[in-house]
Every structure is written in structure tokens, then in C-alpha cells.
Write a structure and sequence with these properties.
Length: 469
């Protein structure tokens, strides 16, 4: 068909759709195979010119063609046209893609795929890819009609350009819990890792999300790491857009939640990426970074690097980033091996300087970190040398309950230190100091009582209790 013929057909379709539709329906019902292919391909050229309502009328006709015992050129033309129609949707809940899936097309594609040759197979795969991308409901239809097994079987034997599209289909299906179980059972995790490594960014993000969901299981996490998922996730974390960075960072955090994988995650270059995430405006990103830093810092070498990044953020970051960094330092200050790193990194003078900062949220988190550091003798010396004591005494009169409590907690630790007690003498009579002191005395007494009670319980008593046997 020449370009002029196509233009005439398009003009006729646009100017008089009802007449053209009737002609199209007549041809595909009673015309020769050549006429059917020609009519369907003509429709492909005008799919972008019509509303969804108009295109929806063609779906049952094309679906019926796929279900009939027609030649592969007719099937191929119908699948290609349906792919174009499905792609008119926007997002994973497209109306047209969903209608196509509900018309029985998915089952037809799955039936035709195993017996199709290379060219026909590529068209079928592309059509199925559009259906699961633009029609979320179609993923369930594929999964419940043996589609996962077909896709994995094809991936096991396919090395051509179709492989990329098969991986993208797998990444969409893997967002379903029932599919993830099948993927694990069929040994398909290696393909999910490949899907996170290659293909469109949307598909890679989907695969990354599925990996994070699978990584909660210890067995699946181990297999994923053996398959090389850590560098794949780190690379996606590095190059992805804002949303992809969140998904990759979260999935990588799930993988890192095992002592054997903490160091490999850091060695792959994750720590600077989480530091960047901590400085983003997205609160979810900050929360992810804080949680993962607390996991990675279990390894001493990681803690050194993390603290260095946190100190830089405390110096250079905006108020939200400073707050997040101080919050992480607060958590890490409770790790026995981290206190020396915090001290040697120069964090303490920076924290003390921020006690006088104008942002109350920053000051509250900083004061919490200082209160935690004050439990360590050498850190108390460093805090005193940095001038923390007079500032904390002043904070005992602050309007913020949290600031007063944190300052009082730190000063009480100074009062328990014979070498530092004199520094806080003027704080002893302050009401907030006395209130916190009484509270801590009660807490410590309660803890000691609990410890004594546990010591009195013998092994015989534990094994006698039928609920514990």
C-alpha cells in the first residue's frame, strides 16, 4: 500500500469513522487473509487519532481473530495492532490494555507463544509486554494461566533481542506475590536480577522492587547475593531517577540486613549513595538512609566512613539534612565501637556548635546525640573541652521539653563522673535537672530489679514452665 493510499485511508477513517469501522469489520470477518492483514495494518496507522471509546470497539474483533485458526500473518497483524492500542494507555491502569486482557487476548498470546517462529514470537512478546505494562490486572491473568512458566522457559532458551522484552514482562509479573513464589520455585531469580540490570528504567525499577520484597526471606536473599544482586542494585541506585533511587536504596537495605552482606554492600560503593539520599528533601529517602546506616555501621570499617559523611553533612547540609545526620549520629553513639570514631572524626565540636543553632529540630537531635555520647568517659572529656557544659546548663531553661530532657540527661552523666562533677554544680538546683535525675534513678532501680529477678530464675524453673518447654 502506497503512502498516498494510507493517507486517503486515514482521512476517511478520521472523517467518517462509523463507515470506516463497518468496512473494517466486514473485511476482517469475510475478506481474504491478505485483505484482513491490510485492513488491520491500516488500523495501526490511525490508532493515535481516535478516542479510547472508538478504539475499544475494535478490541473484540481483533481478539476474535487471535482466537481463530488463522494464518500467522493475520495473527501477527492482530497482535501488533492490539499492542499499539494497549500502548495508548497512561500508567499501569490503562483502560484499553485492561479491556484487551479481559477479552481473552492474554490466553491467546500464551497459547501461540511456544509454537511461534522468531519474527512472530517477537510481535507476540511485545504485545504481551504492553498488556502487562499498561494493564496491571493483566498480570494476574498471565500468572494464573501458566504465563510465568512460559516466560521463564523462553528465557532459558532465548538469546536474541526478544530476551529484553521477556525480562520486562517478568519484572511486571514479579510485583505479584504469587508470581514471586513461582519464580523462586522455578529457579528464575537469576532472570529477575538480569531484569534489574538491563532494559527500560521502568522495568528495572519494577525488578528492583520485587528483589526487595524477595530479599526479606533469608533463603532468597542468599540466592540473590550469590547471583550478584548487590552491584546491580548499587548501580541502579547510582544512575536512577528520584523514585528509582528510593526503590534501589530500600531493596539494597533489605539485602544488607544480614551480617554476611554488610561489608559487601559497603564495598560496592553504597555508603556515599545513602549519604546523598540523606540530603534529599524526600522524607522517605531520609528514613531509608537512616535505617540502612544503622545496619551498615555494625561493621567498624563502615562506621568510620558513615561518621565522616555525617560530619560533612552537619557542616554543609541544609536544616533537614543536618537534622537527619544528627539523628543517625544519635543512634550510632549507642554502638560501643562507634564512640571512638565519632570523637576522632571531629564530630563533637561540630555538634556542640549546633547546640546554639537557630533551628529547634536540629538542636533537639544534636542534644540527643550529645546526651548519648555523654555516657562515655572519653567523650565527656571531649564534650567539656568543646564547651558543651555551659550551653547545656542554659538549655535546662529552654521551652522545648526534649531539649531540656536531653541536656539534663547529659549533665547527670557529668555529675556521676568525679572528674567532671564540678563543671555542672550550678545545674543541680534546676528543676528540669532534678526531675530527670529522679526519673533516671527510678529507671535504673527498675532495671536492677529486673536483672535480679532474672538471676533468681533457675534453669529448672524455666524448663518446668509448660509454656516454655
Amino acid at each position: 500500500m502506497s503512502n498516498s493510499d494510507i493517507e486517503k485511508f486515514q482521512g476517511k477513517m478520521i472523517s467518517n469513522w462509523e463507515e470506516a469501522f463497518n468496512h473494517f469489520e466486514e473485511v476482517v470477518v469475510s475478506g481474504s487473509e491478505a485483505m484482513k492483514v491490510k485492513a488491520i495494518l491500516n488500523l495501526v496507522h490511525v490508532t493515535g487519532s481516535f478516542s479510547e471509546d472508538v478504539l475499544a470497539r475494535t478490541i473484540p474483533i481483533l481478539a476474535k481473530i487471535l482466537g481463530e485458526n488463522s494464518s500467522w500473518p493475520v495473527h501477527q497483524a492482530a497482535a501488533y495492532c492490539l499492542k499499539q492500542i494497549a500502548s495508548q494507555g497512561d500508567g499501569p491502569d490503562g483502560r484499553l490494555a485492561t479491556e484487551i486482557g479481559q477479552s481473552g487476548v492474554v490466553c491467546c498470546l500464551l497459547r501461540l507463544l511456544p509454537q511461534a517462529d522468531n519474527g512472530f514470537k517477537r510481535v507476540l512478546v511485545n504485545c504481551l509486554g504492553s498488556l502487562v505494562t499498561f494493564g496491571k490486572a493483566n498480570r494476574v491473568i498471565v500468572a494464573r494461566n501458566g504465563g510465568v512458566e512460559i516466560i521463564i522457559d523462553m528465557l532459558n532458551s532465548c538469546n536474541d533481542g526478544t530476551r529484553k522484552y521477556l525480562l520486562e514482562i517478568l519484572s511486571a509479573l514479579a510485583l505479584l506475590r504469587e508470581v514471586r513464589r513461582v519464580i523462586v520455585g522455578l529457579g528464575g531469580l537469576r532472570f529477575l536480577v538480569k531484569a534489574a540490570e538491563f532494559g527500560s528504567m521502568v522495568s528495572r525499577e519494577r525488578a528492583c522492587q520485587a528483589i526487595g520484597l524477595l530479599g526479606v526471606s533469608r533463603r532468597a536473599r542468599h540466592i540473590l547475593v550469590e547471583l550478584g544482586v548487590i552491584p546491580v542494585l548499587v548501580e541502579l541506585f547510582r544512575i536512577g531517577d528520584g523514585t528509582t533511587k528510593l526503590v534501589a536504596g530500600n531493596s539494597l537495605g533489605v539485602i544488607s540486613a544480614h551480617v554476611d552482606y554488610i561489608r559487601p554492600v559497603a564495598e560496592a560503593g553504597a555508603i556515599p549513595l545513602y549519604a546523598e539520599l540523606l540530603q534529599r528533601t524526600d522524607p522517605i529517602g531520609k528514613e531509608i538512609a537512616e535505617d540502612v546506616f544503622c545496619i551498615l555501621a555494625v561493621a567498624e570499617a563502615n562506621a568510620v566512613s558513615i561518621v565522616e559523611h555525617l560530619v560533612r553533612i552537619l557542616r554543609e547540609g541544609d536544616d533537614e539534612a543536618k537534622t537527619a545526620a544528627a539523628d543517625v549520629l544519635w543512634d550510632l553513639s549507642g554502638y560501643k565501637h562507634s564512640t571512638s570514631f565519632v570523637r576522632s572524626s571531629g564530630a563533637i565540636p561540630v555538634l556542640v556548635g549546633l547546640l546554639s543553632y537557630e533551628n529547634d529540630e536540629v538542636k533537639e537531635k544534636v542534644s540527643g546525640a550529645i546526651a548519648q555520647l555523654s555516657y562515655n568517659e572519653l567523650d565527656r572529656v571531649a564534650l567539656a573541652e568543646a564547651g558543651a557544659v555551659p550551653i547545656m546548663i542554659e538549655l535546662l531553661h529552654d521551652e522545648s521539653d526534649e531539649l531540656r530532657d536531653n541536656a539534663a540527661e547529659a549533665l547527670i552523666n557529668f555529675s556521676d563522673d568525679p572528674l567532671q562533677r564540678e563543671l555542672i554544680s550550678e545545674a543541680i538546683g534546676v528543676a528540669s535537672f532534678q526531675s530527670m535525675q529522679n526519673r533516671l534513678i527510678r529507671l535504673r532501680a527498675s532495671d536492677e530489679h529486673m536483672a535480679r529477678s532474672m538471676r533468681r530464675m533457675s534453669i529448672d524453673q524455666l524448663t518446668w514452665d509448660p509454656d516454655l518447654v
